[in-house]
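Priority: medium. Attachment 1 of 2:
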């Protein structure tokens, strides 16, 4: 007999990073300025992800909790989510007096190992559900630290633009600038490959020249008061080029050449993933139909060349 049921959906994840590296003045660990995107299909139906070369689809990430009369332990389905098991174990050990029993079903179609924050989204969904159902107090900051103890994580619960230590789960530097409404035309550079498993990533030993770039970029980001597409474009592209050496993407040089033909604000990508996207300033024309974008034909050629679909995402 079903006694209780509830569900939590995470509405935000991220599309790669503007910059990712080691900023020695603030941390010895790798930090990143992530690029958030919306998965809120209810409030933003016109602007959520849509594919214009294959069938339309939506990304979603949710966890459902059910409690039955005979539940004596916590059951997780599907059982393949080892990271979720680790998270539930940590919470149970931190709150031994809470009777955490029932059944949790993870429902997610976010692509794995692509640089879209699939693991973080699932873990955050779990934490929000556990907080609500079992009345456990866990702050957003603590939630991110817990996630980071399991694997490198993303600051999807932090509203401000910031450099975030993915290994520690801590905000290292907040920035003053805000992004305007933006649209990303993104694609998977290796749609049939396995992607990159971030939990198996080793620390990168960046060169002195690369560390100098990260330090100079931090100063530029600190001094930015408003959105500056030229500065962000230079930082994002150079950061992708540096990290390409350590976690290479297929056809990366060809992608750089394609971008020269576009009118986008800048390029963004998953530094430890396979996703790359071209960022445009939001306007009504872009939001309604992909074909209204002036670069449609060029992006269409890119899609055919790499045998991948171009997908529209909304940054919020």
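Attachment 2 of 2:
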């Amino acid at each position: 007999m079903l006694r209780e049921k509830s569900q939590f959906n995470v509405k935000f994840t991220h599309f790669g990073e503007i910059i990712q590296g080691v900023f020695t003045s603030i941390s010895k660990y790798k930090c990143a300025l992530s690029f958030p995107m919306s998965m809120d299909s209810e409030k933003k139906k016109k602007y959520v992800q849509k594919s214009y070369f294959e069938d339309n689809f939506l990304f979603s990430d949710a966890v459902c909790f059910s409690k039955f009369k005979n539940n004596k332990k916590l059951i997780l389905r599907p059982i393949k989510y080892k990271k979720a098991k680790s998270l539930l174990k940590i919470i149970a050990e931190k709150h031994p007096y809470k009777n955490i029993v029932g059944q949790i079903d993870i429902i997610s179609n976010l692509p794995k190992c692509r640089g879209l924050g699939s693991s973080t989204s699932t873990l955050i969904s779990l934490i929000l559900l556990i907080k609500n159902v079992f009345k456990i107090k866990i702050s957003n900051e603590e939630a991110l630290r817990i996630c980071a103890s399991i694997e490198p994580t993303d600051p999807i619960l932090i509203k401000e633009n910031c450099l975030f230590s993915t290994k520690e789960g801590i905000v290292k530097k907040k920035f003053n600038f805000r992004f305007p409404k933006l649209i990303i035309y993104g694609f998977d550079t290796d749609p049939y490959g396995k992607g990159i498993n971030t939990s198996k990533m080793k620390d990168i030993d960046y060169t002195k020249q690369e560390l100098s770039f990260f330090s100079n970029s931090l100063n530029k980001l600190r001094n930015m008061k408003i959105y500056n597409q030229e500065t962000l474009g230079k930082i994002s592209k150079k950061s992708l080029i540096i990290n390409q050496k350590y976690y290479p993407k297929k056809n990366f040089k060809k992608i750089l050449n394609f971008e020269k033909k576009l009118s986008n604000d800048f390029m963004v990508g998953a530094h430890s993933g396979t996703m790359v996207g071209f960022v445009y300033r939001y306007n009504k024309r872009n939001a309604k139909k992909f074909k209204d974008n002036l670069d449609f034909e060029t992006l269409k050629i890119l899609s055919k060349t790499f045998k991948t679909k171009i997908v529209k995402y909304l940054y919020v």
